[in-house]
Design brief:
7 helices, about 240 residues, single chain, two-stranded antiparallel ribbon, alpha+beta, 6 strands
Length: about 240
């Protein structure tokens, strides 16, 4: 009974074996040169979330007057795969998904721009009191590094200014796409009013509030009007 001897066959066909070894070696070298080595590889997510808030409305009202209107408009989205929505009391959430075989990676962002435009076109037809709509298509944002900035004796605003400078510097680094600041403390101004001074001037606390609000009110002639110019305030910056 004759059996196949692989070793003997290989010795008798050395040229063919050398050919296969060369092809496999070159194929492995080519694959290694094109092998993905990114820690956070790029990938395309073809889904957007459109959310709308309507405080005080029931789920049925949200569905009939908000969700249905937006869904009907979004049905004209190019390359649309499906729509999925949730209507909750005071809130509407709509998921827009695109077809992978139709919408390529370079067409995703232009499609999301069309979605924004279509929804904004019907924004005026939504009921009064509706907050939004808001769009979220940044699911692929992945932050590779997080740095903390501390400084004894520096105020929150000093740290924010320094962090903003660092952020602008990091954006100039090649391959850096986005830099966000976390934990930024908003500036606040506390107004402490002396009751005796108010009584002496014959003013009420509401007059102070009106005066502060009037600081940002521009008249038609471009002049700023204030309600009380002689009020003494102690302003404490934090």
């Amino acid at each position: 009974m004759n059996t196949f001897n692989l070793a003997e066959w290989s010795l008798n066909h050395k040229q063919l074996i050398y050919y296969f070894i060369t092809v496999i070696f070159l194929g492995g070298l080519f694959a290694y040169q094109n092998l993905g080595r990114m820690e956070d590889p790029d990938f395309t997510i073809r889904q957007m979330v459109v959310s709308v808030a309507w405080p005080g409305a029931t789920a049925r009202q949200v569905e009939e007057q908000v969700t249905d209107k937006i869904e009907k408009k979004l049905q004209d989205t190019p390359g649309l795969d499906y729509l999925k929505s949730y209507s909750l009391p005071g809130q509407s959430v709509i998921y827009v998904s695109l077809k992978e075989d139709t919408v390529t990676a370079d067409k995703v962002q232009p499609t999301w721009l069309q979605v924004r435009n279509m929804v904004n076109d019907i924004k005026a037809t939504l009921p009064q009191g509706v907050d939004g709509p808001y769009f979220n298509d940044q699911f692929d944002d992945v932050f590779g590094c997080i740095y903390a900035l501390t400084g004894d004796g520096y105020s929150y605003e000093d740290l924010r200014e320094r962090a903003e400078t660092i952020r602008r510097t990091l954006l100039t680094v090649p391959s850096v796409k986005k830099v966000d600041l976390l934990g930024v403390q908003a500036e606040k101004i506390y107004i402490e009013i002396e009751s005796a001074k108010l009584a002496q001037l014959g003013l009420a606390p509401s007059d102070i509030t009106s005066a502060v609000q009037a600081q940002n009110a521009m008249t038609a002639a471009g002049m700023i009007e204030t309600a009380a110019d002689n009020v003494y305030l102690r302003v404490r910056h934090v």
